[in-house]
Batch of 2 targets.
Target 1
Amino acid sequence: MQLRRDPITQSWVIQQTAEHSWAESGICPLCPGHESLCPPNLYVYPLSAANWQVRVIPHRNPIYQIEGDSARQAEGLYDKMRNLGAHEVVIEHPDHNKQLSDLSDDQVIQALRAYVARITDLKKDTRFRYVTLFRNVGAEAGQELEHPHSEITATPFIPRRSAYELRSALTHYENKERCLFCDIIKQELDQQARTVEWNELFMSFCPFASRVPYETWVMPIYHHASFEEDVTSPEKELQLARLLKSTLRRLSMVTKASHLVLHTSPNVNSRPYRTGTWRTLSEDYHWHLEILPIIPGKSRSYSIKEVYFNSLPTPEMAAKELRDGGSAQK
Ligand SMILES: [Zn+2]
Ligand SMILES: [Zn+2]
Ligand SMILES: [Zn+2]
């Protein structure tokens, strides 16, 4: 596999060559008792217990390979590099049939801790410019293993959507000396047209220019650029776990299939970066989770679209429906 840069959009595209299949007939490799079908744990909770509650393993057929360097090369005007990176699987719970929203507060907190631990560890690797987490739920979302799980990837480039966001956030900060996302939060809480719910620390809302119906973001109400540096206190873990569960439950009334993506600060330790590249990052960027539901017949895969087509409902209608309909059943 190889990464190639689109010279027009400047984004890196992965050229996939191999089929990705992991599941063997009828056996779930992520279920307890089948650990031998998986690569060794990178993280497990509780430590050294056969009765694990959360574990993280390398992906068996990774999109990215951890060894070596990125071997950036030019081919005429084109840029290419090896698929250097890391690709891990977070198994949030041993139960094959439990989604995040079905777990207890403590179980979701343990999953959040696994995310924080792995992202923090991968960011120590100066070859990686960006580390993110995503969660595909449902076959329509490209979930390849039935057992609920998230994936973490570390890449030697910043994915396009995040690069756009970082640029916009910096521009807004340079013009106004304020965080773009904090401004959005303030306006959404004032207007109450697109908010879904909130607690003392976090909120969820349908963004003004939603790309797909029922698109929902989860953000801290206070300012912080980095998820893995921020979500480390018991109070933040608990409030985030509760809000995330409740928001996911509301969305599950609308569809079972969705993508969830973490947008956090890029790896400021990575080399080479020009001095001063991330000078104002901690003030100008604001981490968040983006949830993109898949409504059968309505939305197409968001990841490959340059221009997003969003059919009804509008974000205002979607937020109202999620507020009214899905008030957490348990
Ligand atoms: Zn399973
Ligand atoms: Zn902010
Ligand atoms: Zn984002």
Target 2
Amino acid sequence: MEIKDLKVDLLCLGARVSGVDKGRKGGAGPAAGGMFSFGNTVTNVPTQSWFVSLSPYSVELVEGKYILKRAGERITEVRFPAAKFQELRTKDGISYGKIALLHGTNCVATTTIQTCAYWDTPKRCKFCAIELSLKSGATIAKKKPEQLAEVVGAAQKIDHVTHVTLTTGTTATSDKGIKHLAACASAIKEATGLPIHAQFEPPDELSMIDLLYESVDTIGIHVESFDVAVLKEKAPCKAEIPLQQFIEAWKRGVELFGETQVSSYIIAGLGERDESIIEGSRLLVELGVYPFLVPLRPIPGSDMEHEKPPIPDRMRHLYQVVGEILHERGMSWRRNKAGCVRCRACSALADFE
Ligand code: SF4
């Protein structure tokens, strides 16, 4: 089985890791982070959702090595990237792991504002879990720029991270959280010089995006789906934003940051047809925006926790077609400087380019 096919299987089916988790002493583990590194890729594998118990994949500790098995047969060795920085604490006693986490093999990621204006309303995205980790005490509500500078600085020194992903819940203000993203990015940039990715909703004023120009290298403005009926049901807040507003924001982003430095998540498995994903990806690629195509991740505790991701064969077909669209345009994840596109743990598109 090719690495890219295995990656799609793991993204869609997940893997059982229970025995392994008990056997590990601490740090970022498969149960906590689910980051599996194998071959020349890394995959963010579901390990806690209900459907994982049906997966043919499991990980076992064999003579000190983590072995990925399918129906009990050895497939390959997997590694779980270390995140020693997460074990440290700030001077005021907050665990670094509550401020930022290692994503993939070399990206440090955080949600700068862990609350969302839509959370307690019928408009919230049904696939989202932003405030669940806050309620569980796994993180803090708002990360201060100086805290992030300290934590990312440590991640750079200790774990040799090479880029940063900043996301945010949408605020009730017209900047949609961009001002705080800019403050956080400036502090991190000054402390580390690392390339930084920032994700946000299209702001009311396009000039808000310009605030990020000095400190940020790449941006993500996520449409989630090009099917309006699906959006209305699964992400009502996004359905209220006209597609044209996304297009203007993407265009402004490409003008500022360059082709392939702007991306949009597209989630497969919300109830859309393949055509909407393929045509939507074509539109993004024409604008110079990278379509970060991911299978639905039903997160335990979210409104969609009982759903299932799309089947691997559907995702392989979509990745194949969208990979060809990228190829025709000469776009590749390799040119992207920071964030999800460079990390590629949550999408197998890079592996199909
Ligand atoms: S692709 Fe993005 S969200 Fe997924 S692990 Fe990497 S940085 Fe995190």
